Amino acid sequence: MNASEFRKRGKEMVDYIADYLEGIEARQVYPDVEPGYLRPLIPASAPQEPETFEDIMTDVEKIIMPGAASPACTELETVMMDWLGKMLELPEAFLAESGGEGGGVIQGSASEATLVALLAARTKVTRQLQMASPELSQASIMEKLVAYSSDQAHSSVERAGLIGGVKIKAIPSDGKFAMRGSALQEALERDKAAGLIPFFVVATLGTTPCCSFDNLLEVGPICTEANVWLHIDAAYAGSAFICPEFRHLLNGVEFADSFNFNPHKWLLVNFDCSAMWVKKRSSLTGAFKLDPLYLKHSHQDSGLITDYRHWQLPLGRRFRSLKMWFVFRMYGVKGLQAYIRKHVQLSHEFESLVRQDPCFEICAEVTLGLVCFRLKGTNEQNEALLEKINSAKKIHLVPCHLREKFVLRFAICSRTVESAHVQQAWKHIRELTTELLRAQKK
Amino acid sequence: MNASEFRKRGKEMVDYIADYLEGIEARQVYPDVEPGYLRPLIPASAPQEPETFEDIMTDVEKIIMPGAASPACTELETVMMDWLGKMLELPEAFLAESGGEGGGVIQGSASEATLVALLAARTKVTRQLQMASPELSQASIMEKLVAYSSDQAHSSVERAGLIGGVKIKAIPSDGKFAMRGSALQEALERDKAAGLIPFFVVATLGTTPCCSFDNLLEVGPICTEANVWLHIDAAYAGSAFICPEFRHLLNGVEFADSFNFNPHKWLLVNFDCSAMWVKKRSSLTGAFKLDPLYLKHSHQDSGLITDYRHWQLPLGRRFRSLKMWFVFRMYGVKGLQAYIRKHVQLSHEFESLVRQDPCFEICAEVTLGLVCFRLKGTNEQNEALLEKINSAKKIHLVPCHLREKFVLRFAICSRTVESAHVQQAWKHIRELTTELLRAQKK
Fold first, then answer.
1. Among all residues of chain A, which has the CA nearest to that of B164?
2. Mean pLDDT over the full length of chain B
3. CA of B25, closest CA in chain A: separation in Å?
4. Model pLDDT, residue A301
5. pLDDT at B292
């Protein structure tokens, strides 16, 4: 949507809201629809081609308004998570429409998704162990629980361990910054031999420092074999899996108990919207479920409906699936794929500019929209270059450490980025580099 | 703001956003302002009288846009939490402007605030005990930790205990559904004698079932004496404390370590916005702080700035203080007070209608906007009446249990509610009651 259509549609929406508020007394306070009303009114998959704003607003009036906030909010979320799951070709077991035990939920952030998964895994293993040995206290079990992630995993994984009160250990990644099966296996065996209880592994697809990918096809079977909950954090990279040419990066997801990525990062859905799927709903709800009378409703024992409050940390929730519905339909799957592909192409364009310059080196494989690069020189030189770039305030880079190296990260992430911006950015970096090297020679 | 002004201002805002997007290339990617730039540009307190939309938009352009997302997002939040804290007459120790150790933060929900407080308290007591006896493991401490709340507390308190992996015990409330000092003291002594470690108490101001108030002036000193973290959950009632005539309900807050209420419930700020204050910032940040390189910035060791990511469960955050700023200025403190007073007056109007009818009884003291009432009859009769009311879908009531009684709850909570609605609702309830009693006689 360009700015002129945004002006038009935005103003129509303002009127829609004002009309709603002015006419609110004529509306019923509680909807007439029955649980499950929404799914049959909506296609089973996201459209391939873009639809018009009018089409979507017609459906808002016809499909959403009769279902008011509830159950429309819940049911649209379940269907949108199925749409998105199918775009990623997630295994059926993760989709609610399969009629199995799985399904999706929108969390606020990947940090919350990781924490929710860890808590569910903690509850599951505790119950299993107490079933076998009823004399074990929760604390005596928790003392021995260990979670694992690669040494490249996001800080939110360590934080989830802190909050959940369990040990969390970093598995050394390989030369490509990936967690491999052998290193995980070794840690599991060592810890089991020491009397500890491995219960949770976070595999990262698209790490924060350099967008590396843990080896799911190795890690997955090891987790299954060891009866350890496998959570996949693909916060950034997940959006790319809607393109067939990147889907192989998700191979092995079939071994996971839970999978999460952030459409708010790279799929044009506004912050916040973190998509999480589980293979077994009852593992999540088992960790959180409490049912006071003021939250009871007539459908809760029917098995027909989803109570997302048992899937998450907060009780209340916003109607976040609406923005997914709008974005998926306004772009169509093809439009979203084109958006991802353009960003990846632009990052390769930047990569090749860097590679052509003998002063610079590429520090990690460029797979998606992130390019890790640095001056062939000392860390101090690279820190000075970063300082120069960020002080100029024309572009902004966030650094990382890869092993002992201080590395600059060039991320393609704006909705409106074009080749011209990439070219300008590189020219700018080159100029600042020349200045820096000249000053250092003096 | 009425619907016609909303149409005008909403459309201006759409243009403002479109203009911003069209002109974005001319903007700098990183602001020039220094940490602390915002506070001197904004009054120290919320205005008493309403201001105009133009005034606020002028300030957005002048004060917020130069500070972009960061640091404006953080700094406006800190100042808005001070404004709100002063509206409630919170003790200085909770205000960031006092230059002390306290301050406020916006959480997503009261559930998260309770959990964050519990985790902070857990970390604090664990560190204190390990300082004294370094041989103690975290698990051996957690096994003995006990948190407390009244038997009327919200289910999210029990849930926080589940998530935090600690015991949580319900203190029997008194005849007015309030937690009293004696009952708490008794539980603390009994548990200490049994070798347990009391570490956390949640006092509720305005319970969910009947809006009762725990006795802070009794509970507070006991917590201080026992070195137990006192968290106050005033999720609903907190908004009323901006009126001097209700402020006494908050007396004793000076004993608390943390205090929370939801402006999104009753202060005209859209969902979600949960306001939390702590007396000692470092207790929160101590529980969560991790500092990877990709989240480092040049000001973090200066002591000048607030990193809210260490105050909450998620890492990312939305710019939620903007809506507080708009609401506080557009209504002014007097406008917000008038809004609260109107609701309380309407609930008393409903209360007196109920009291005039010999078939009904009031089941708990009416203090704010909630009226608990029931037919003088069996629980089955009241359940049947509720079913009849909610099936008619003209009004919607949520029930509760008070001791053995099934009780109906009439809540005044709409922005546009008037006396006429209350009268209509009561007439409607009376008619359905007559129908019900007639049918039961047959």
1. A164
2. 94
3. 10
4. 53
5. 65
pLDDT score, position A303: 58
Strand pairing category for A229-233 and A197-204: parallel
Q: Residue B384 has what pLDDT?
A: 98
> What percent of chain A lies above the pLDDT cut of 70?
96
Distance, in Å, from the CA atom of B170 to the CA atom of B182, rounded to the nearest integer, reads 14
Pairing of strands A229-233, B258-261: unpaired
Residue of A nearest to B395 (CA): A29
Q: Does A152 touch chain B (CB under 8 A)?
A: no
Search chain B and give the residue with CA nearest A24: B416
Calpha distance A66→B90 (Å, rounded): 43
> Which of A2, A30, A136 to probe by mutation at the B interface, max B CB count within 10 Å?
A30
This complex has an ipTM of 0.94
* Two tokens, residue B355: 């009291």
Would you call the peptide bond into B71 cis, given omega within 30 degrees of 0 as the criterion? yes
Return the CATH architecture of domain A76-331: 3-Layer(aba) Sandwich (3.40)
Phi-psi group of B111: left, alpha or beta (phi > 0 → left; psi -120 to 50 → alpha; rest → beta): alpha
Identify the residue whose tokens are 């190296």. A405
Tokens of B113: 């605030």
Radius of gyration of chain B (CA): 24
**Mutate which: B29, B122, B295, B311, vs A, most A CBs within 10 A:** B29
Contacts of B7 in chain A (CB under 8 A): 14-15, 18
- Overall size of chain A counted in residues: 442
**Chain A interface includes B10 (CB < 8 A):** yes
Distance from CA of B151 to the nearest CA of A (A): 12
Query: Rounded CA gap, A365 and B286, in Å?
Result: 36
Q: What is each CA distance from A42 to A32, A38, B134, in whole angstroms?
A: 18, 7, 60
Compute the nearest-CA separation of A93 from chain B (Å). Answer: 27
Q: How would you classify residue A399: left for phi > 0, otherwise alpha for psi between -120 and 50, otherwise beta?
A: beta
CB-CB neighbors (< 8 A) of A15 in chain B: 7
Beta carbons of A292 and B155 less than 8 Å apart: yes
Break chain B into its structural domains and give their ranges.
Answer: 76-330, 333-441
Tell me whether the omega of the peptide bond preceding residue B272 falls within 30 degrees of 0, making it cis.
yes
Residues in A touching B140 (Cβ below 8 Å): 139, 143
Is the pLDDT at A360 greater than 90, yes or no?
Answer: yes
Distance CA A52, CA A422 (A): 31
**A19: distance to nearest CA of chain B, Å?**
8
pLDDT in tens, A12-67: 999 999 999 999 999 999 999 999 999 999 999 999 999 999 999 999 999 999 98
> How much is the average pLDDT of B408-426?
97
For chains A and B, CB pairs below 8 A equal 175
Query: Among A353-367, A411-425, B61-75, B196-210, whose mean pLDDT is lowest?
Result: B61-75
Whether residue A300 is predicted with pLDDT greater than 90 in this model: the reply is no
Closest-approach residue (CA) in chain A for B6? A18
Q: Judge if the upstream peptide bond of residue A174 is cis by omega within 30 degrees of 0.
A: no
DSSP for residue A256: -
| C-alpha distance from residue A114 to each of A118, A161, A315, B119 (Å) | 6, 9, 18, 17
For the whole model, what pTM was predicted? 0.95
In the CATH hierarchy, which fold is given to the domain comprising B333-441?
Aspartate Aminotransferase, domain 1 (3.90.1150)
Which residues numbered 66-125 in B keep a CB inside 8 Å of some CB on A? 108-109, 111-112, 115, 119, 122
Nearest-by-Cβ selection for A18 from B3, B21, B396? B3
User: Other C-beta atoms within 10 Å of B137: how many?
Assistant: 12
Considering the segment(s) B76-330 as one domain, its CATH architecture is: 3-Layer(aba) Sandwich (3.40)
What's the confidence (pLDDT) of residue B310? 86
Chain B positions in Cβ-Cβ contact with residue A396 (cut-off 8 Å): 29-30
